[in-house]
Design goal:
Structural class: alpha/beta
Helix content: 25-40%
Order of helices and strands: HHHEEEEEHEHEEEHHHHH
Number of strands: 9
Largest sheet: 5 strands, mixed
CATH topology of the largest domain: Aminopeptidase
Strand order of the largest sheet: 1-2-6-3-7
Shape: globular
CATH superfamily of the largest domain: Zn peptidases
Strand content: 15-25%
Radius of gyration: 24 Å
CATH architecture of the largest domain: 3-Layer(aba) Sandwich
Mean pLDDT: 90
Distance between the termini: 31 Å
């Protein structure tokens, strides 16, 4: 198993059982090393097969990836459904039910099957070859986000095969068209919302896991991301003939307005969850940066530090 997939599977299994298991009694701790290695080999095999499916968006053609997932879920006896909502486009839903008498609200493992375009002339290997080069698997979408989807798949398989006790349903959801218009997610919410079971948690792409060798030092979880702020700017000015410069013409005033927008610096606002995260991340930083992270509010009073943050 590639390091990235191994780390993601580990983090997902921890997340599935954090409420019911201690760190020393996680499900993976009870699985013999030989069987864990078999899961690793299976993950590499499936990862290569998944990366060989061309789901470049546009046009997507994610039905082929949905069929890939469905075949595996069917073989493993895991409940699943495929929804063909447009020509060549599909979403796949799968579920492992809770085993406890009283169930908490579900957790969703969400991933998208489409990938962005690629130019084979800039690649060491064909972008849909899934070849292993120097210990890494190459393929368009390996980072965004087929490796995540594959890790979620392996997690589902391990939960089922190892008969892990669950206090909530675990839902796997693979959607289409994330890279362009988001039609897969929109369609599912509009037409199959009941299958989400009023979920309490959802794990998607984002965050990062820090590895030291093969050991996971921490598991990163994103709680929010930047959002676009759309502006519609209209300029009015004195009209005139193009042969004469007009300082207060509409184009000039528009250019000046755009320059002001570009020069604007968003005020820093330290959210509690960000403050806690940076404080906990301090031990993994250089001594100077660690001191800044431990007191982020004070550090942000330093303009040089502000500049570093904006460039990061």
């Amino acid at each position: 198993m590639s390091k990235s997939v191994r780390a993601m599977v580990c983090s997902l299994l921890i997340g599935m059982s954090a409420s019911a298991w201690s760190q020393s009694a996680l499900p993976t701790a009870t699985i013999p090393a030989e069987r864990l290695e078999q899961y690793s080999d299976l993950a590499v095999k499936w990862e290569q097969e998944y990366l060989q499916i061309d789901t470049t968006n546009p046009p997507g053609n994610e039905t082929r990836s949905a069929a890939f997932f469905k075949k595996i879920f069917d073989q493993e006896g895991i409940e699943n459904r495929v929804f063909d909502y447009a020509p060549g486009r599909a979403d796949l839903w799968a579920r492992i039910p809770h085993t406890s008498a009283q169930a908490k609200r579900p957790i969703i493992l969400l991933n998208h099957m489409d990938v962005v375009t690629s130019d084979a002339s800039h690649w060491k290997v064909p972008p849909f070859s899934g070849k292993v080069v120097d210990g890494s698997i190459y393929g368009r979408g390996a980072q965004d986000m087929k490796s995540d989807g594959l890790a979620q798949l392996v997690t589902m398989i391990m939960l089922k095969r190892e008969k892990v006790a669950l206090d909530r349903d675990v839902i796997f959801l693979a959607v289409s068209d994330e890279e362009a218009n988001g039609t897969g997610t929109d369609w599912f919410i509009t037409n199959q919302k009941q299958l989400l079971g009023n979920a309490e948690f959802l794990i998607n792409e984002g965050g990062e896991n820090l590895l030291s060798g093969t050991q996971v030092k921490y598991i990163g979880v994103d709680v929010g991301e930047k959002s676009p702020f759309w502006l519609h700017v209209v300029a009015h000015g004195r009209p005139g003939h193009g042969s004469r410069p007009i300082p207060d013409s509409a184009p000039n005033r528009l250019a000046q307005a755009l320059n002001r927008i570009i020069a604007y610096r968003t005020p820093f606002k330290v959210l509690p969850v960000v403050e806690e995260f940076l404080h906990d991340m301090a031990p993994y930083q250089t001594p100077a940066r660690a001191a800044q992270y431990r007191n982020i509010r004070q550090s942000l009073q330093d303009k040089r530090f502000q500049d570093d943050v904006e460039k990061d």
